[in-house]
Amino acid sequence: MSFAENLKKIRKEKGFSQEELAEIMNVSRQAVSKWEQGIGYPEVEKLLLLSSKLNISLDSLMSEEIAQNNNSENQKVTGTIIISSPNENVIATCYKVMSSGKMKRGKKSPQYALFGVSNGSSSFWGEPTIFLGWYASHDLLSKEVSEIQKAIVQGIPSYELKYNAKVERKWFRMTMIDE
């Protein structure tokens, strides 16, 4: 299922009208309608808010396919995946990913960050997260998240980040390296 189909289905399951969801999200009813028609797409901050307000994971909301009644004995969907980030020298076992909002920085600085969330116990500070990578644009970040979600749904055990930016750090400044 697409994001639009998932959102509409989940909204109805939770008993919200488009107007009620729009009010909760602080957007217009037309915005919710566009999201459900696949015409528009919410900003990252709104996706995180949707996930929180509807009490669902981003994986459930964003996945293009939802594994239903998978009776195959050879394929076991665990809901976790090992994500490797060669640019950051990180390997993490995650059950979902989440991203930062757009960061206000220079033209050559990364605009978004991606984090993996592990199955460890939650604390006062929330679920345990690990930094995975930097992204130059929302499109590249969305593409990466979509591919990770597809891999989780398909039961693929590992995924290597493809669209993250290589970054050079100097003191408190970060600059993307062109390759």
Low-pLDDT windows of residues: 64-77
| Average pLDDT metric | 77
What can be said about the biggest beta sheet? 3 strands, mixed
Distance between the termini: 35 Å
**Cα-based radius of gyration, to the nearest Å:** 17 Å
Number of discrete domains: 2
Structure annotation, total helices: 6
- Fraction of residues in helices? 25-40%
Q: What is the tally of beta strands? A: 8
Structural summary, described in words:
The chain has two domains: 3-56, lambda repressor-like DNA-binding domains (434 Repressor (Amino-terminal Domain)); 81-176, no CATH class. It has helices spanning 3-13, 18-25, 29-37, 44-53, 58-62, 138-153, and strands at residues 81-85, 90-94, 96-99, 112-117, 129-135, 158-160, 167-170, 173-176. It is α+β, with helices and mostly antiparallel strands. The radius of gyration is 17 Å and the shape is globular. Helix 2 crosses helix 3 (29-37). Strand 7 and strand 8 form a beta hairpin. It comes from Eisenbergiella tayi. Residues 7-61 form the HTH cro/C1-type domain. Pfam families: HTH_3.
